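Reminder: ligand-aware prediction takes two inputs, not one.
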Amino acid sequence: RQAQYRQLRDRPAVTRDGVEIALQLNAGLLVDLPHLHETGAVGIGLFRTELQFMIAERMPSAKDQQQLYAAVFAAAGDAPITFRSLDIGGDKLLPYMPRVEEENPALGWRAIRIALDRPALLRIQARALLKAAAGRHLRIMFPMVASTAEFERAKLLVEGEINWLKRQSSPLPERLSLGAMVEVPSLLFEIGEIAQAADFLSIGSNDLMQFLFAADRGNKLVASRFDPLSRAPLRALTAIVEGAAERNCPVTVCGEMAGRPLEAMLLIGLGFRSLSMSAASIGPIKAMILELDTRPLKELIRREMDHAGTYESLRPALTDFAERH
Ligand code: PEP
Ligand code: MG
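Here is what comes back for the chain with magnesium ion:
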């Protein structure tokens, strides 16, 4: 199997009916970068910057951050990289940061919430990214955005750093794109506004499913109780892909869902054209795409979703489709 997947490395991920899918890599440390070349992924769809912070014994300095980002750019060559700003808090604690006691850490002070309350953190990181990306296309996305207003506030912080660098006559990125992760369900109800405000969106399906079903993603008793292929998530995903398309806003799925063949097949059927996943998933997902015809798949999804009766999940119908095709 592994050898078989390696052979697919240089083949573009195009379905039998000619639909091209951008397969990207999830990464977080420099050691992940060789996977880009090994798998033939077209870019890094999610670079989890918090990993550098989690493995360090003290807060990485601005210089440490800039060095890592510059090394990532160098290792990625021309491939695009989407850096996610610090996603800490919740279950991702930093040993050197004072612990805040919270009753519900997943719903607590985390990610962009910390960034907006302690803007120095985001400003230092943004500056490190802007400097490391001199002359390149820099893509930054913010985690756990709950409203368009939050996104706008984070954007202002980054723009403040650009102005500062301009005053220093410091070299700037050739281009900057700012995106929002869609992983808090409130954004579903202003998908038009966020798609208008952001340069791109990326669905964090792990958190989106956790919050949609109010089921802790780390709690074995409930984590797999609800199926992402059931009605509510399908409608949520449809609303996102359609809302983004209406505003010409590119959208990627970067949660674990994108790396599972049946789920990825469904996402493609719903209209997603960019998926980001762990290195080990690229081969199997590409093999699936090369065998896929999206026309009967779309037909099947439409039929099943319009079906008025109760259904638990599209999983059996999709499994059957996958076996027959
Ligand atoms: C997600 O929530 O799906 C995601 C990609 O981010 P993380 O798993 O790092 O929370
Ligand atoms: Mg998340």
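The chain has a mean pLDDT of 96. The pocket of magnesium ion (ligand 2) is lined by residues 143, 183, 204, 206-207 (CB under 6 Å). We will return to this case in the review session.
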